[in-house]
Amino acid sequence: MRIAAVQMVSSTDPAHNLARALDLIAQAARQGAELVGLPENFAFMGRADHDKLPLAEAEGEGPLQQALAGAAREHGVWLLGGSLPLRTDDPQRVTNTSLVFDPQGRQCARYDKIHLFRYEEHGPDGHKFYDEGVVLRAGERPVALDVQPRQGAPLRLGLSICYDLRFPELYRALMRPACDLIAVPSAFTHTTGQAHWEVLLRARAIENQCYVMAPAQGGRHENGRRTFGHTILIDPWGEVLARVEEGEGVAVAEIDRGLIDQVRHRLPALAHRRL
């Protein structure tokens, strides 16, 4: 199965971002991708967290979800919608949610980001503080699903978002039963990305002996934020198969089920777990 991870530099204009996302999905489909993943916050990177509240949709309704379903149906691909805000029963809180659509445009999975990023620093430039939990409501459960390629047996896809990457226990929970592929749509900061992005992604691939796809935001945004990018696809041995460093682009690679089986047979670490 060929998979594609999309890199974007999303702005404060949802219509523009959606148009760019749809174009990049089409590019991935033209390259033969059967599964396409968008980055976290693909439709909107606001100037403040509360800016996303008016954009939030009810599950199953709204222009963003309709557009994603339509793109999956038009191109006949499985589509991971990065993340977008969905409404909760509190008008001041939303979820940061990944939705997966099948090639018929049907929503078949929803994952709400469990781990919410919080950062605080006292330095020469003063006090810096950021807390996603001010606006976001955390999810509560891991989510995985079976994705059916055009040929062959289904692949097990585990879902996560950005800051989740730092919590290996989530990925261990996703390995019962074992996933063949883990998705990590992200908008990593440039500072933390330089230090930790690739090493954490490769660790998740190696320890879980599966493929990892990490669609990312990558560049200088209209709101002044700089994201790290380096959208990447990694195999179960931890080898990097494809990447986009900065700016818009699409990383494409093949999933080889035989390699998954070979790695797990040669070094059966998953079978050796005691906890």
UniProtKB/TrEMBL annotation:
Any keyword Transcription?
Answer: no
Q: Note the InterPro entries from the entry.
A: C-N_Hydrolase, C-N_Hydrolase_sf, Nit1/2_C-N_Hydrolase
Q: Where is the signal peptide?
A: none
Tell me the keywords, alphabetical order.
Acyltransferase, Hydrolase, Transferase
Q: Does the keyword Zinc apply?
A: no
| Gene3D superfamilies the record matches | Carbon-nitrogen hydrolase (3.60.110.10)
Which superkingdom does the taxonomy of this entry point to?
Bacteria
The CN hydrolase domain covers 1-257
Q: Name one GO molecular function term.
A: acyltransferase activity
A Pfam family annotated for this UniProt entry: CN_hydrolase
| Listed name of the protein | Acyltransferase
